[in-house]
Design brief:
Elements (H helix, E strand, L loop, with lengths): L6 H7 L11 E3 L10 H14 L7 E3 L11 H11 L4 H7 L5 H14 L6 H9 L3 H13 L5 H10 L7 H11 L5 H10 L5 H12 L20 H15 L4 H18 L5 H12 L13 H18 L5 H9 L3 H11 L8 H11 L6 H15 L13 H17 L5
Parallel strand pairs: 1-2
Length: 417
């Protein structure tokens, strides 16, 4: 029996057509059909046409040597991503495909190519796609790209009734964007949504404000708020917002460090690891101890004493932005997390370090989802929309370096803040 590639992969293979010229021949290697006879490849071409819903039959070419013979779906997607912007119109067409799997794959390809394309198509999918999984993925990708048009969409969804298929994704997108204008909407949802919806809302609020109350027994995934305690928690959050809405997100972050240190003394021991990890994140290093699970109450007390002594010694000279700039020079995961933080603070000092991090981690197109936070941070801090370096087919690193030079030149010309 002939083994055909997955249906979704067949649809993705069609995206290679712009690179195949007028012959309309899909290179067989890219769709994993090297084991098929010419007759079987012809039949597969007809199947590809059906996936395209009315397209003309396609010729599936024999795999030219010395290309690799065993190409899985992940490799095929990587090849598509390397083709870059020329395939985007074809990907947009797949957003209307009848298969949810194909639409999800199309969104993933767009995500990995970058956001130099217009996000209007994804915004439409996020609002109207009949499959919640597809709509939610489109919403999340736009949130990752920090698309301003998503903010009112999130605000509206947070003000609406709770929807188990939609609301969790909305909260996750709000947490990803971490915009201060989303705080009132998150507080509204905290008040109006049904019991059990609190943990992701509190986690989103913590991410944006670096603030929490001792009732929020971290980590939030394990949080259970009694029905009688919820109005008090909502009221305390509303009071906090009334007092702190006019402060900067940088002020919120520094105040949160103080609160977390004090929380180590009062919260349950099971929260200590979570709080300690959050503190290490904001101060920029693991210099007090190695994190380990299962801290006892006595360990929490000791941890509090260590942090408290360090904070008293360093509070007046502590520079949170500088601490995050040090994290930007580390591995890609930590650099991207630091970028998400500095993007909120409005201080332009990290821009050169962010650009260096992009140079270190951002040349390979397949890595773009992991380094997108670096790009978003540069855009937010410089108030400029620079395109991500689109790798060329022959010399991607050279093309990327040329684009990086244009970035740096444009940023150097920005008026001082």
């Amino acid at each position: 029996m002939t083994r055909h590639p997955p249906r979704a992969l067949l649809a993705l293979a069609l995206l290679l057509l712009p690179a195949c010229g007028a012959r309309q021949t899909v290179p067989g290697t890219f769709v994993g059909v090297e084991h098929l006879s010419p007759g079987e490849r012809e039949a597969l071409g007809n199947e590809l046409a059906r996936v395209l819903e009315g397209g003309s039959p396609l010729r599936i070419g024999a795999p030219p040597l010395p290309e690799p013979r065993n190409v899985d779906e992940g490799t095929a997607k990587a090849v598509l991503v390397r083709l870059g912007m020329p395939i985007v119109p074809r990907v947009f067409g797949l957003l209307d495909n009848t298969s949810s799997r194909v639409r999800l794959d199309a969104i993933e390809i767009l995500r990995r190519i970058g956001d130099s394309w217009d996000g209007g198509a994804l915004l439409r999918v996020a609002q109207t796609d009949p499959d919640p999984a597809v709509a939610n993925q489109a919403l999340f990708v736009l949130a990752e790209f920090d698309d301003d048009r998503v903010v009112p969409l999130l605000q509206k969804a947070l003000a609406a009734d709770y929807d188990e298929n939609r609301s969790p994704a909305v909260v996750e997108a709000a947490r990803t964007m971490a915009r201060r204008e989303l705080v009132p909407s998150l507080l509204s949802a905290l008040e109006l949504w049904p019991p059990g919806a609190e943990p992701p809302l509190l986690l989103a609020l913590k991410e944006i404000t670096n603030h929490s109350f001792d009732e929020a027994n971290w980590p939030p995934a394990k949080l259970r708020i009694a029905k009688t305690d919820r109005p008090r928690l909502v009221r305390r959050w509303q009071e906090w917002w009334k007092e702190n809405a006019g402060r900067s997100m940088l002020d919120w972050a520094v105040s949160g460090i103080d609160e977390d240190i004090e929380g180590l003394l009062h919260w349950r021991a099971g929260s200590a690891d979570f709080v300690d990890t959050n503190l290490q994140r904001y101060v920029g290093g693991r210099f007090l101890r190695d994190a380990h699970p299962g801290l006892l109450w006595e360990d929490s007390q000791r941890l509090h004493d260590e942090w408290n002594a360090w904070w008293k010694e360093n509070y007046e000279k502590f520079d949170l932005v500088a601490a995050q700039m040090a994290r930007l020079r580390r591995g890609v995961a930590e650099a991207c997390d630091a970028a998400r933080l500095v993007a909120r603070y409005g201080d332009p000092r990290p821009i050169p370090v962010l650009l260096e991090a992009v140079q270190d981690h951002g040349f390979e197109p397949v890595a773009r989802p992991e380094v997108l936070a670096l790009i978003v941070a540069v855009r937010r801090l410089s108030a400029q929309r620079f395109e991500f370096p689109l790798a060329g087919e022959r010399a991607p690193k050279v093309a990327a370096m040329e684009q990086m030079y244009r970035w740096k030149t444009a940023i150097d010309r920005l008026p001082p803040k």
